[in-house]
Amino acid sequence: MKKWYLVYCQPSKELQAKQNLEQQTYEVYLPRFKRTRRHARRVETILAPLFPRYLFVRMDLEIDRWRSVNGTRGVSYLLVNEERPMEVPEFIIQSLKNRETAEGGVALDTLCMFIKGDAVQITDGAFQGYKAIFERMGDQERVHLLLNFLGRDLNIALPAYAIEAA
């Protein structure tokens, strides 16, 4: 029976690994998201890997020659546990696919674990240790918060990794 497994790729070679695995007739899933990239005074929106250096491959370990995945260009190795590839539950892949937009990227706002009005704790940066109210998820993995600072409500934007549930 075909199941999903996790592949670790060489740096910035996810697309190359995906194409080469597909040429070997494997079903491959590379979740990506829309990201804004700024370079040389230009701003462009690109589809970047949701999990840098990782992709998912679907195969039947009894039929497919799964060890050949490790020799594929762009692949570092297939993640294994006790000499067997690590299985990824189907519901995780399906959940990611259900969140894809028409452009092919995963909608990050649907992956957010907070909803508007949730109390959060700031864990990094100038406001570390303060409590705030979650407003919304922004682009480029930033969150918008309402912070009561010195008796005034401030709207601030922080990296998503800089907050946790209060």
Number of helices: 2
Tell me roughly what share of residues is in helical segments.
Answer: 10-25%
Characterize the overall form. elongated
Classified by CATH, the class of the largest domain is Alpha Beta
- What is the radius of gyration computed over CA atoms, rounded to a whole number of angstroms? 20 Å
Structural class: mainly beta
Residue-averaged pLDDT? 87
What is the β-strand count? 14
Q: Largest sheet, if any?
A: 5 strands, antiparallel
CATH fold call of the largest domain: Alpha-Beta Plaits
State the end-to-end CA separation.
43 Å
CATH architecture of the largest domain: 2-Layer Sandwich
Give the number of domains: 2
Please trace the helix and strand order, writing H or E for each element.
Answer: EHEEEEEEEEHEEEEE
What oligomeric state best describes the polypeptide chains here?
Answer: single chain
The proportion of strand residues reads 35-45%
CATH superfamily of the largest domain: NusG, N-terminal domain
Which stretches of 5+ consecutive residues score pLDDT under 50? none
GO cellular component, one term: cytosol
Pfam family, one: NusG
Organism: Candidatus Nucleicultrix amoebiphila FS5
GO biological process, one term: transcription antitermination
Protein described:
The chain is mainly beta. The chain folds into 2 domains: 3-110, NusG, N-terminal domain (Alpha-Beta Plaits, 2-Layer Sandwich); 119-165, SH3 type barrels (Roll), CATH 2.30.30.30. Helix content is 11%, strand content 43%. The strands form 4 sheets. Strands 1, 2, 5, 6 and 9 form a 5-stranded antiparallel sheet that branches. A 5-stranded antiparallel sheet has the order 13-12-11-10-14, with no helix packed on it. The protein is elongated. 16% of the residues are buried. The model has no long low-confidence stretch (mean pLDDT 87).
